[in-house]
Amino acid sequence: MKLTDFEALSFDCYGTLIDWEAGLSAVLTPWARARGLDITEEQLLTEYSGAEAAAEQEHPADLYPDILARSMRVLGGGLGAEVTAEDAARLAGSVPDWPAFADSHGALTALGSRFKLIILSNVDRASFAGSNARLGVEFTSVITAQDVGSYKPSQRNFDALLSGAARLGIAPGRLLHVAQSLFHDHVPAKRPGCPPCGSTGGTPGPAGAPPRRRRRR
Fold it and tell me: Which residue, of 85, 103, 113, 160, is most buried by count of CB atoms within 10 Å of its CB?
């Protein structure tokens, strides 16, 4: 598989272009310390990611800020730590503050001169707008969980991607999906009819592991 075989690239955003872990840690770690929890950042993010994956599956129509708030409350319950309304709201509104990876803007700018760029992401439109301001790139198309009414790894999200690509005149087999998460992207992309999936730098966890996006180092 060569990059020149394709005319369009679709991207997961969080964990691929935006540092999902750093953004979450900036809110969750101070909360955990304030509650006196004896837990590492790695353990905290693992516990949180499991709660978020369950919330997305059980409440597919919820907007992502509501998923964040719900997941934090579940996290607190599991750890025996209080989550106030203010705590949950802080995480729910934090997405625009999550940093972009240092190389994201440059890479997207270079790729955008040759390929159509599409976002397929598990967020809402307003949250992505804040992240897009950090990326500083114009995408040909943006498809969010809010648009689809479900979260990856649902097949509906990849069907929406393929339908959107067809409307843009992208020929079958000429779209490459780029993502880090095995759980959200690589495994579902193996279904018949889905676009092939490539990885950015970094090391995805095993398919059976909690659905963490791995920070690029």
Answer: 160
Across the range 152-174, mean pLDDT stands at 93
Confidence bin at 178 (pLDDT 50/70/90): confident
Q: Which residue type sits at 159?
A: D
Whether 128 and 119 have beta carbons less than 8 Å apart is answered as yes
- In this prediction the pTM is 0.87
- Residues 112-131 pLDDT 10s: 999 999 999 999 999 999 99
**Token pair in block for residue 30:** 């101070």
Provide φ and ψ at 157, rounded to 5°. Answer: -70, -40
Q: Which of 12, 19, 124, 185 is catalytic?
A: 12
Whether 19 is catalytic is no
Helices (H), the chain: 20-34, 41-58, 64-79, 85-92, 104-112, 125-135, 145-148, 155-167
